[in-house]
């Protein structure tokens, strides 16, 4: 059985992109996380120590996303996945969606971004 902890709409200002102005000025990115884990123990115990702290996940995500300026969202999301799987042994897999609402595209669009899923290898 796999349960899910999620965080949606996490807004982070960062300097990712291939164009000079993206790395100089930066822009807002929005991150959605789905963390796959077994929540049977905390659903019975009601103890924070038996689960994964949302606050700690947000802090880890923010640090991993902002520490380095990447050209590609794929790499930035990969850094977040690596950090989450490294810091939270209870997490079996993570799905990360990174939205880039102000991507420099010569078109009118609602949203653009990437989604990746990474699993812990047994």
Features:
4 strands, elongated, GTP Cyclohydrolase I, domain 2, alpha+beta, 122 residues
Which blocks of ≥5 consecutive residues have pLDDT under 50?
none
The description of the largest β-sheet is:
4 strands, antiparallel
CATH superfamily: GTP cyclohydrolase I, C-terminal domain/NADPH-dependent 7-cyano-7-deazaguanine reductase, N-terminal domain
The proportion of residues in beta strands is 25-35%
Biggest sheet strand line-up:
1-2-3-4
From N to C, what is the helix and strand string?
Answer: EHEHHHEE
The appropriate CATH architecture is 2-Layer Sandwich
Structural class: alpha+beta
Helix content: 25-40%
- By CATH reckoning, the class would read Alpha Beta
Domain Dihydroneopterin aldolase/epimerase: 5-118
GO molecular function: dihydroneopterin aldolase activity
Organism: Bradyrhizobium rifense
EC number: 4.1.2.25
